[in-house]
């Protein structure tokens, strides 16, 4: 991972109207794409939904490479990036393992009286906050001495084990709901005392993880009870705390509908009153990659259909239509710590191009269904002390950034109003929902304008990880000040830019890179310019940019205006 701030030098895309690079039209097998947008035509605010991350293993955050990566995330948008982790209340000494973590926050003395110890969880939250990241607090899992089935407790899962082997004593209901509530209350009270009311008011608090599948070994009604007691406990410590849930696996279907009905109209198990406070609604959405004819095929259609199902479920409740939605895990598939052929997309540009294309469509779905999408959380972090490029779903490996992290750096350079974009190379939203991107590739863009800079994030994506011709893309930008010059920066992720994985392979894939090789990998991992910045002058408020996008490439074209911006309409 880079040890320095993101490089802000960028690639030249020619003077206005910008001419194609000499070699562009000569690339064999290229196909043309026309992208058009207008700086004065907005579809509404571009919400920074990308600023949420998470991991099963909370203790990695306090380790060497974990601290560095948390810092990189915090620098994307200090104070507005959130991190969600499992196992924040799990019993243990804080030693991490795959799909495991612990804080030892709760134990009981010989007389059965609670003993609280916040030292490990404080260290985790301190690591976040000192680096500009805030907690998305998951209240779970069950401490050993509270579990109705404490043995076996810590699992010894490996990527070759069956997934359901992880569901041990931590996944069970409490033997005493009052003790569970008091644990949560004391934790929330401690956080307010340590970090201050104003800070903790900015956090998210939710109960458990995916309680509609094996992560919860009780009934749906027992989970509703667990949740009611947890929310009441937090609100007793901080009446203005932001609480929600249920972070179900998938949209949750009938299970989530019953949960939301309970929160809105059911009898609260903790208070006896009607309803449970709900400030945000959360569910999870995953894709389904496979191996076809020896190559990885992504499942973007399944991913986005689940997002659509979740949005529809929330929108079906009039009381929730305006509530913020956080897709609490939103990823190409469901197991970050798993390894295998179908996960071969993770280290390279398949993951980064998928991320660009899928995030744009989450915006589209939210707009179409009229819901308030606040966040889409990427369940990817890092795995400490593992081989380089080990094939986990991660943002970095041994301190070396993966290409997907650079997409989030691109997102962080966008803001303001979202602009309407028309692309002749786009695969329509309905077509993606139905069939994915299996025929023609998807070449399109997401654009924003904040009054001082206009950013265009363009991608060339296909579900199949196979070679394909480059896209020769013409981007027409209208609505700019007629004569004022603009400064163009062009950032790129492809085989040669922002891509340490390809650099590592060019080195011969050394299992233990030398210090010199590590320094080179760090350099290659950074988000950098494709070429030198260019000062351009619009003609009649119009710029024409030309860029060649290889398959799986992502470009960010950022135009910095030097004059008064045009009004939005």
UniProtKB/TrEMBL annotation:
Gene3D superfamilies: Glycosidases, Glycosyl hydrolase domain, family 39. Keywords: Glycosidase, Hydrolase, Signal. InterPro entries: GH, GH39_cat, Glyco_hydro_39, Glycosyl_Hydrolase_39. Residues 34-523 form the Glycosyl hydrolases family 39 N-terminal catalytic domain. Transmembrane segments: none annotated. The keyword Signal applies. Pfam families: Glyco_hydro_39 (PF01229). Residues 1-22 form the signal peptide. The keyword Signal applies. Belongs to the glycosyl hydrolase 39 family. This is Glycosyl hydrolases family 39 N-terminal catalytic domain-containing protein. It comes from Paludisphaera mucosa.
